[in-house]
Design a protein that fits this description.
By secondary structure, this protein is mostly beta strands. It folds into 4 domains: 114 residues, no CATH class; 142 residues, no CATH class; 102 residues, no CATH class; 143 residues, no CATH class. 13% of the residues lie in helices and 35% in strands. α1 packs antiparallel against α3. It is elongated.
């Protein structure tokens, strides 16, 4: 009876320990990276009542008889199954999608292993650490601009090391009208990271071309629709002047420049018009001023037709091939034709001066040549970006002799965007457009605060953006074991190496049997609550049964004592 009582006590103790394991599992049901455990029992030693005996020809064999002394806890086993993952939105959180452990090291150099991937960067030291401040181990990049190409997995601390930033001007490139416009601040530094927006102001007073409104790093440039500029350089010069006048001093970013790529160039181009109907329009803009070259529509034949030469404002035109002794060399428009055919009468007017009765040989239908010009001055002509020469020949025909020759329209202007003494084709900056300059910096050492876009790749590569370039700081390497269930639980979701776990084997995530990393996610606890509650019920019943064993043993002892009255 005393023996049965102690067996009941051992059963109570064993079931209490099992309930302790269940309680630890349930309490860590929401602990990231937690691995549940299970308790198993074993029977204790036995007292032999009778030994076994071999059977003979006269009697059968005898089995051994023994009475046990209860149960005890056999083992608490780790269940290392990979659990599901939950998204966190934190780019420095990582979950391991397969086998393997993250490596961390405390300040004393002790290395632990964990599945809990709550990582961060120490703002003071720049090291990659976990939630407890332990160093995360892996491979340190020798140069953040080069990366970790060819480096084997290791156990080094990973430090975020940023290269020194060169001084840089702020700039931005934007595509408008098929061309790329690049705006740049002349001074280095982040003051150039400004926003400049252009818009037309129809209510601007006459005589005022540009108005600027400055609010912090935002600059609004309002342009009078009636204003004229000799080119983009002239336009930006007036914009910078307006900004300086508004601030009372030059903008901290300096002057803003605007360049176009590719520049507008129209050299040595030829349009060929075959025999037949011409329906189209050729537009050539000019900055005016004294330049050579011209626009010629001609046939290789005897010189017969009409020649028009643009002269100083107020002068008339020479026609029918008559020579002009004093032309302004703005370029000439020459139309010649040799051959018979009907004629058409044209009227041409330039700034109020009209020449009528001009005749084109061998052209039929409605054709027209229009020249518009504004301004003027001694020795040249004023520049207006809206000036143009238009050749429009709708529903007209070139009629040839008895051959099938062609008309060639060679265009050989000298071009240079922004220079008022060159001829160039149409170019449009486009208003109601904005430029957000960026990348301006004074240079010098960078800090953790300069990093944007932190990320951890599937292979453990730690990257970030700083100074306008993508940097690779290092790689988080994993450790794997032949017997991960042999690891020792050390608290804080850590495991320690033991003799039965085997030595750690280091690997790049996703290689050599390890799982890849998934950033912005954490591995949940692998506790199965349904299973734990079932075990809780059986443990409770086992505990109750053992307590009843003690009660019955006590009653029997009481009866024994009552034998003596």
């Amino acid at each position: 009876m005393v023996r049965s009582m102690y067996s009941g006590v051992s059963g109570l103790r064993s079931h209490q320990q099992r309930l302790d394991v269940i309680g630890n599992n349930v309490s860590n049901a929401n602990t990231y990276g937690f691995k549940s455990s299970r308790a198993t029992f074993r029977d204790m030693f036995y007292q032999n009542v009778r030994n076994a005996a071999q059977g003979t020809s006269s009697r059968g064999g005898i089995n051994p008889s023994a009475i046990g002394y209860g149960a005890s806890l056999s083992s608490v086993d780790l269940l290392m199954e990979v659990s599901s993952m939950t998204p966190t939105g934190n780019p420095l959180d990582v979950a391991i999608t397969g086998e393997g452990f993250l490596q961390v090291m405390d300040n004393d150099g002790n290395i632990f292993y964990t599945r809990a991937g709550m990582l961060d960067v120490d703002p003071t030291t720049g090291y990659l650490v976990d939630g407890n401040g332990y160093f995360v181990l892996g491979t340190q990049a020798k140069d953040a601009t080069v990366g970790i190409v060819g480096q084997e997995p290791g156990t080094s601390r990973i430090k975020i090391e940023l290269p020194t930033l060169d001084a840089k001007q702020a700039s931005v490139t934007k595509k408008i009208g098929g061309n790329e416009f690049t705006m740049t601040a002349s001074n280095v530094g982040d003051a150039g990271n400004a926003s400049i927006n252009f818009s037309l102001a129809y209510d601007m007073p006459a005589g005022q071309d540009i108005e600027v409104v400055i609010s912090g790093n935002n600059i609004e440039v309002n342009v009078n629709p009636t204003a004229t500029f000799s080119g983009v350089d002239n336009f930006m010069e007036m914009v910078n002047t307006a900004i300086t006048d508004k601030l009372g001093e030059q903008h901290p970013a300096g002057n803003f420049t605007l360049n176009m790529d590719p520049p507008i160039v129209m050299a040595n181009m030829t349009e060929t018009y075959p025999n037949g109907e011409i329906t189209g329009e050729q537009l050539i803009k000019s900055d005016a001023g004294p330049v050579g070259g011209g626009l010629t529509l001609s046939e290789d034949a005897a010189d017969r037709g009409i020649q028009f030469i643009a002269k100083k404002l107020g002068s008339a035109f020479s026609a029918n091939g008559a020579a002009d002794t004093n032309p302004v060399q703005m370029g000439a428009l020459t139309i010649t034709k040799n051959g018979a055919g009907d004629t058409a009468t044209w009227d041409i007017e330039v700034n109020g001066y009209k020449q009528t009765g001009l005749t084109f040989a061998a052209l039929t239908g409605s054709a027209g040549v229009k020249l518009e010009r504004t301004g003027g001055g001694a020795g040249g002509a004023a520049a207006d970006p809206n000036d143009y020469f238009v050749i429009s020949i709708p529903k007209s025909y070139f009629v040839y002799d008895d051959t099938t020759k062609e008309y060639n329209l060679p265009q050989n202007p000298i071009t240079d965007l922004g220079t008022a003494t060159k001829q160039r084709p149409s170019g449009n900056l486009g208003l109601n457009a904005g430029f957000q300059l960026e990348g301006g910096t004074e240079g010098g050492p960078q800090t953790i605060m300069n990093i944007t876009g932190f990320g951890i790749g599937a292979d453990g590569t730690l990257t970030g953006q700083a100074g306008g370039e993508r940097l690779i700081f290092g790689r988080i390497d994993l450790a794997n074991f032949d017997n991960p269930k042999g690891l020792q639980q050390s608290g804080n979701s850590y495991f320690a190496e033991t003799q039965n776990s085997g030595k750690p084997q280091y690997a790049v995530p996703g290689e050599d049997g390890t799982g890849a990393l998934k950033n912005s996610a954490l591995e949940m606890s692998n506790v199965d609550l349904a299973n734990e509650f079932s075990d809780m019920i059986t443990t409770q019943r086992g505990y109750q049964a053992n307590s009843r064993l003690i009660t019955v043993s006590d009653t029997m002892l009481e009866e024994l004592i009552n034998l003596k009255r």
